[in-house]
């Protein structure tokens, strides 16, 4: 049975009360039970009940009033609409209109900007020191062997832990099903090159991760953009109808905590999609890079969990959870595994030995699960705080995603706003933010931005949001 992420008791209680508040059983201004009442209602100690209340206070859901108790706070963000899905005609695109600023997000200069752009966790939330210690201990233990090549398929140690973890994803993969890659980027590139030829068409979500748009263009592939709903993901009715007219060689999705929209595709949609495409022999390439970062409850199932004939190629990495710079990723390529190995032998050959072993050990000894419990909670709070800060600092007329995992927000601005100009003006003011067209396979999403919530809401980040809000206001008034 899948666990609800083994959250501490106070977090579970806080989640329970949050659900009650969100379902409107308590309204803004209502008094919630006292800490003492809550502790006896749930059979927990007073300190545990108090910790649950403090957690809800940090999430901005309740507030303490002196000598009176705890009350539900009015949160403006709850009244915001979800971003609408940008309309897309049934057509393919070869990226002549896409916005080519991808390198800007990872340039050295970007590191000096207020980090609302690149999808990165704050360095204080990554276990860098622990991983470095693990890596140096492994280096000392292995001696000369620590500098030799990792096997083509990748370290058996990491593949074994991944196989064990795959039960939590709803799969039952074997160590031999995995191939270790240099990040999710290499995994996705191997998957696309194994399943497609230059000139072929690939079904993608619209909007989608900018790196995928870039990769398709560089591989000389065409995209067929399918609109997404901001809560449930790819529009499957639209896809089913379109499949009567268009042919595709593969379909790439980020079904769990999508970048940039943040949706979690429900299990029934995941099953329907996999069955629909398997019936037409179209392979599914799944990017699961945010899958471990649910804000509450159980870890979502992968599309791969619904795969019955090896037609789903599962790709992921530890870039969003542990160490983007270690470049440790993986692919479970199903029927395409031997092709993936041939392509890898002709490109990167093998991955960096020590980072792979350090990640394997961190996973094996339970460090990863302990760490995930902390960051899931942190990202949930950061996303909530950022939503509230955006509502406060931006003009009326915006819509904001409600991600159930990960650390990204997708923000629809009033139609008059040009997010490319906005991101350029923000950059001159020392702030990085990702403009919508970066995520559009055909240059759309002009009035959208993606906001990174991977960092704690420091006064510097609040300042950055305030400046962005002012820039948006100016554009509307022009
Ligand atoms: C959806 C998605 N896939 C892949 C990547 C790149 O992953 P990696 O750094 O492991 O290559 C990112 C990074 O932002 C991403 O958001």
Write the layout of secondary structure elements.
Blueprint: H1 9-22, H2 35-42, H3 46-58, E1 62-65, E2 69-72, H4 102-105, E3 114-116, H5 128-142, H6 156-165, E4 178-182, H7 183-195, E5 201-206, H8 210-218, E6 222-229, E7 233-234, H9 236-242, E8 250-253, H10 267-278, E9 284-287, E10 312-317, E11 328-332, H11 337-345, H12 353-364, H13 367-393, E12 399-400, E13 408-412, H14 419-428, E14 431-435, E15 448-452, H15 459-477
Parallel strand pairs: 3-14, 5-6, 5-8, 8-9, 9-10
Antiparallel strand pairs: 1-2, 4-11, 6-7, 10-11, 12-13, 13-15, 14-15
The site of pyridoxal-5'-phosphate has 14 residues, from helix 7.
Radius of gyration: 23 Å
Mean pLDDT: 91
Largest sheet: 8 strands, mixed
The assigned structural class equals alpha/beta
Treating each run of at least 4 consecutive H or I residues as one helix, how many helices?
A: 15
Low-confidence stretches: none
> Strands across the major sheet, in which order?
4-11-10-9-8-5-6-7
Q: How much strand?
A: 5-15%
What are the distinct ligands in this entry? Answer: pyridoxal-5'-phosphate
| Strand and helix order | HHHEEHEHHEHEHEEHEHEEEHHHEEHEEH
Strand count: 15
Measure the end-to-end span. Answer: 57 Å
**Quick one: overall form?**
globular
Helicity level: 25-40%
